[in-house]
Amino acid sequence: MNIKYPMLVEQSYKSLKESGFELTKAEVYRKMIEANIIDRYGKPTDEAIKEGWVKNYDADNPIQKFKQDYGFPFNALDDKHYRLDKQGNVLIDAPGLAIAAAAIQLNPSSSPKAVRVAECIENELRKKGYLGGDDK
Q1: The dihedral sign for the CA sequence 55, 51, 19, 32
Q2: 135 falls in which pLDDT band (50, 70, 90)?
Q3: Contact 107/72 with Cβ under 8 angstroms?
Q4: pTM
Q5: What's the chain look like in SS3?
Q6: CA angle, 94 as apex, 90 and 99 as ends, to 5°?
Q7: Residue 122: which of 93, 106, 92, 99 has the closest Cα?
């Protein structure tokens, strides 16, 4: 059986795993409830939001959900860089893509592959006239 855990549990599990912790998703879920970070439905508690452990977000808002799902660098982009198309897909404008690409390149934790992809995005933006020729 494949259990779908709440977004905050998935994010915490991924972060803990990357930090070398060996926990199952079920353990992360239980510990987050015990610590009063989430309720049994996976929603952040008032205490967790007040203490800044998690940001309050509206899971029904596609842009906020996108930012939560994809994390860095998209979660730092101002909402003005996002819009929804007629099908409800989240789109990012050219300035937002440029900011995200620069953030990836400047982040020492970015993988070489992520940096190459960010460079390609910048090159395409430059070719299409969204960036000046010397914006590297």
Answers
A1: negative
A2: very low
A3: yes
A4: 0.56
A5: CCCCCCHHHHHHHHHHHHCCCCCCHHHHHHHHHHCCCECCCCCECHHHHHCCCCCCCCCCCHHHHHHHHHCCCHHHCCHHHEEECCCCCEEECHHHHHHHHHHHHHCCCCCHHHHHHHHHHHHHHHHCCCCCCCCC
A6: 95
A7: 99
